[in-house]
Amino acid sequence: MNAQFTTSSDGTELAFERLGDGPPVLVTGGALSTRAAGVPFARELAGLGLSGVVYDRRGRGDSGDTEPYAPVREGEDLAAVAAAVGAGGEESECFAFGMSSGGLVLLEAMAHAGAALSRIVLFEPPFTGAVGQLQDPVRVARLTELVSEGERAEAVTYFLSEIIGLPPQAVEGARQSPAWEEMKKIAHTLCYDTTLLGDSTLPEETLAAVRVPTLVLSSDASTPVLQDAARATAEALPNGEYRTLPGVFHQVPPEELAPVVQDFLMS
């Protein structure tokens, strides 16, 4: 697949691809993912009459990066990709889907970057502080230290085990997977995700500024904390709706997820 490029407001070059010919849905990935991770879901959307637009968040894949990092920059990135595929122009509607911390990018884009999106979908935005599980600043500091020292493998391992809380066998499975080398390449962006999340409490002013219809989804196999955080996010949004779907931990198969998303976006 050949990438197209657009430029964010701070000059950062962003790589994206569009699959399908229907109304665009910007697929925004979570931690440790490049645009490739969103391709199966984008293809499912394309088969349902939409088009899936996958892009590399700054610092990942074929996109550039510009210091210093700030959450609003990622919101501006998404707004730039939306504009590149016609949002606010010839396209009558443009939508977006945010996976995990990708959902936080969507909220930034809507509240602070003026993205021209008609409806959005968030999958398990990790505002676990809303239900009592705050992001641990000590662990975040240790992650930042590992990244600054160039210890990429250790940083990814620490993120998966100590911040996400995956069991040892799952972490070892990640280390043995074909995606491990790509994860190490973008380990520095883990600090971007923790910065986006803050202390993991609900950003009430940001949520209040997101007026478009928003569907917040979770998997029935995710932890109760993640499910409750998704529900709390929906309740805090002016036009939020919550649903849980059959899946595995922090994931629903693309073929099951896409019809639900399509139905909401086109309703």
Automatic annotation (TrEMBL):
Spell out the Pfam families in the cross-references: Hydrolase_4
Mind telling me which InterPro entries this protein's record contains?
AB_hydrolase, AB_hydrolase_fold, Hydrolase_4
**GO MF annotation terms:** hydrolase activity
Provide this UniProt record's keywords sorted from A to Z.
Answer: Hydrolase
Q: Which domain of life is it from?
A: Bacteria
In this protein, which residues make up the domain named Serine aminopeptidase S33?
40-253
What protein name applies here? Alpha/beta hydrolase
List the source organism.
Answer: Streptomyces spirodelae
